[in-house]
Specification:
By secondary structure, this protein is an alpha/beta fold. It has seven helices and 13 strands. The chain has a seven-stranded mixed β-sheet, with helices on both faces. A two-stranded antiparallel sheet has the order 2-3. The longest helix has 18 residues. The protein is globular. The two termini are about 20 Å apart.
């Protein structure tokens, strides 16, 4: 991983919101008793791998958006001191707010601009590069994309000439050869159209930004890993275990 020193140092002031409040129904029965963030992967809770990866990239502030079984996550990870980061938690409350609603509620902890990371994504990339692209764009949002061609999941992004032309998880078109990579950057003003305390999806925010020409795209060449499905979980577990073996003396 190659990270420009100056930007790597600046990333310490960029919060990362991790969306970890969902029900994770595809991983049941495991997630009936523990949240997805605590599922063991290569001998550790998945969130530990995410936070360690972010810390290595220069990130120092993480806000975990929690809902379902969220107290278990806070009890396990505390303030994040053990990982060299500052961990805060934003709870949905009595009603699950969806990914967009959860971010809206967490804005007081996140500030003006921040990364957004899906709670089931493991993305070993240069986080400074999309941050630079976001700043240079002057737009309210950035979506990282990967040329998927339907390989690892269903492609859902029409990305062309550096721009997000269309994004839709439900209605696919032939132009959609890319996929939402799992990492975004957002300005807090992107959430202005939605009232607080209401459930809505991050996809709604992205589509709104696309319609206003306020969403830039950043292509990532390295494939993503995820634990949103049993197959993805098994693949990441094997990958991380092989890495552990390679560094064992």
């Amino acid at each position: 991983m190659i990270i420009t020193r100056s930007m790597n140092e600046n990333l310490g002031s960029w919060p990362v919101a991790i969306l970890a409040g969902g029900l994770a129904t595809r991983l049941r029965p495991t997630t009936e008793k523990i949240p997805k963030a605590l599922i063991p992967v290569a001998g550790q809770p998945f969130l530990a791998h995410q936070v360690r990866l972010l810390q290595g990239a220069g990130i120092r502030k993480v806000v975990v958006c929690v809902g379902y079984l969220g107290e278990m996550i806070k009890q396990e990870f505390g303030d994040g001191r053990h990982f060299g980061v500052e961990l805060n938690y934003s709870f949905d409350g009595p009603m699950l707010l969806g990914t967009g609603g959860a971010l809206k509620k967490a804005l007081p902890l996140l500030g003006h601009r921040f990364f957004v990371l899906y709670g089931d994504s493991y993305l070993p990339i240069d986080y400074a590069a999309p941050a630079r692209a976001f700043v240079a764009s002057g737009k309210l949002g950035l979506m990282t994309v990967f040329r998927n061609e339907g390989r690892w999941d269903t492609s859902n992004v029409w990305f062309q000439d550096g721009a997000i032309k269309s994004y839709n998880k439900k209605e696919r078109t032939p132009e959609m050869r890319y996929i939402d990579y799992g990492l975004g950057i957002l300005d807090s003003n992107a959430f202005a159209p939605w009232p607080g305390g209401k459930a809505f999806d991050l996809a709604d925010v992205y589509r709104n930004l696309v319609s206003r020409y306020e969403l830039t795209g950043f292509e990532v060449k390295q494939r993503f890993y995820e634990i949103g499905s049993p197959e993805g979980l098994a693949e990441l577990d094997a990958m991380l275990r092989s890495q552990q073996l390679s560094v064992t003396p």
